[in-house]
Amino acid sequence: MKKILALILIAILTLSLLAGCGGTKASDGSAGPKESAAPETGSPAEDGGKEEAPAEPVTIKVGASPTPHAEILAVIKDSLAEKGYQLEIVEFADYVLPNTALESGELDANYFQHLPYLTTFNAEHGTHLVSVAAIHYEPFGIFPGKTKSIDELKEGATISLPNDGSNETRALLLLQQEGIIKLKEGINASSNATIMDIAENPLNINFVEMEAAQLAISLPDVDLAVINGNYAIQAGLNAATDALAVESAEGDAAQTYANIIVVKEGNENNPAILALIEALKSDEVRDFINNTFQGAVVPIF
Q1: Cβ count near 57 (within 10 Å)
Q2: Which of 2, 120, 258, 267 has the fewest CB atoms inside 10 Å of its own CB, making it the most exposed?
Q3: Are strands 58-64 and 141-144 parallel, antiparallel or unpaired?
Q4: pTM of the model as a whole
């Protein structure tokens, strides 16, 4: 009898131990996937310090002039995609719509203008747009139309120039630089000058103010035209090789008229915008600008 009781007791103890082991295994199994999903392999800094890309691609919608701005933006599409940002480039043929679209929230940023133009635009339209980065400079040039050199200009010749405040100032300063006119005292790159600010016009030049986009088209009908860099490029002209004169690189024009990335006020530190700026200020973009535009566009970063 004692032997039988001992055998029964041993059997009960064995079953209890097996049940205990089975419970431990189930507990370990439920914790396993969590541990494998987040292995302890070191901090992000130890893995190279890279920022984690967004869980889902984030679209950055940027308005730009077709050239050179849209072309420059296209260079960084892949590098932004690697960081989880999808760059959408929206091309505009004028200087008004990309700002109104940015103000209304249709765009996240735009890239086509310089700070004097932006300042004037905000004042005239009540917009709330700010510059967040300067990327490049496009030298203004005086291009030949019916007259093939500045020295050949005759009494009563016609010169076309842009009709918006900041760009007209820039054109007038270039004409003054070449001795064609003299402006009133105090006119500088930060002014908002018009042809009414011309103090001396010895050849009685007839100035025709027009939309910047039309300047290159006007060349067959005028003696000379002072053309914005991007519109010159669109027309197949290069200020460095085709212009009769360009703005001095040593002057304040390079900084004053630098082309900028603009956002609506309050979005200056948006991660997507910071990623956009970082991608633009890269060696890849600098090399692309220098190799592609051959002096018609100058990186300033």
Answers
A1: 13
A2: 2
A3: unpaired
A4: 0.70
